[in-house]
Design a protein that fits this description.
Elements (H helix, E strand, L loop, with lengths): L1 H6 L3 E4 L3 E4 L19 H25 L2 H20 L2 H18 L3 H22 L5 H17 L3 H28 L6
Helix pairs in contact: 2-4, 2-5, 2-6, 2-7, 3-4, 3-6, 4-5, 5-7, 6-7
Length: 191
């Protein structure tokens, strides 16, 4: 019991002195990363870089740990994002996109990773939506990338899942950068 309290940060043991109540308990089950995001485009780009690392790790672990039910949920999310892309409904696509990325994070069976990805997705929600409502065809590209990630995960090919996820997040990041430039400088979107 003492070891658990010590691990949770509730007490501190000092050799020869006994146990002491810690000043501020920080249980590992409630630890959180506290991020704030400004509207500065460079901050969003940094968040994309952070997200890419999280999503790559999530894809690798999910490939190793996903259950049949996890894969079924991912298939449903991919179908929703595909339907949203084909029908030109960014809201439906976004619903499938969120379920897909969070589903992979949950299939990784790492609660810290899942919570971090959920938080980053909430912080980036508006930036990703700006990209999704950008140039025609961007939803279809993202839907195809979801399918590639899922195929690699389903086949148990962790390296391929990681590479597909990296490509996907970096594609969205590049589209974001292009959309910001278009809005700030007045460049026309490239097709």
């Amino acid at each position: 019991a003492v070891k658990r309290l010590s691990a949770a940060g509730v007490v501190r043991a000092r050799r020869g002195s006994g146990l002491f109540v810690a000043g501020e308990a920080r249980p590992f089950t409630t630890a959180a990363i506290n991020l704030s995001l400004s509207v500065d485009p460079e901050q969003v780009l940094s968040l994309f870089e952070f997200r890419c690392g999280l999503e790559e790790m999530s894809a690798r672990l999910a490939t190793e740990r996903a259950t049949v039910r996890d894969v079924q949920r991912l298939e449903e999310a991919v179908a929703r994002s595909r339907q949203g892309a084909e029908s030109g409904q960014p809201e439906l696509f976004a619903e499938g996109d969120t379920a897909f990325h969070q589903g992979i994070a949950e299939a990784a069976r790492n609660p810290f990773l899942a919570e971090s990805i959920a938080m980053v997705n909430r912080l980036q929600d508006w930036a990703v939506y700006m990209v999704l409502t950008g140039p025609p065809g961007s939803l279809l590209v993202a839907a195809e990338q979801h399918e590639a990630i899922l195929a690699a995960l389903r086949e148990g090919k962790a390296d391929a899942a990681v590479l597909a996820m990296q490509t996907h997040v970096q594609t969205v990041q590049a589209a974001y950068r292009q959309e910001v430039r278009r809005r700030l400088v007045g460049d026309k979107p490239s097709t």
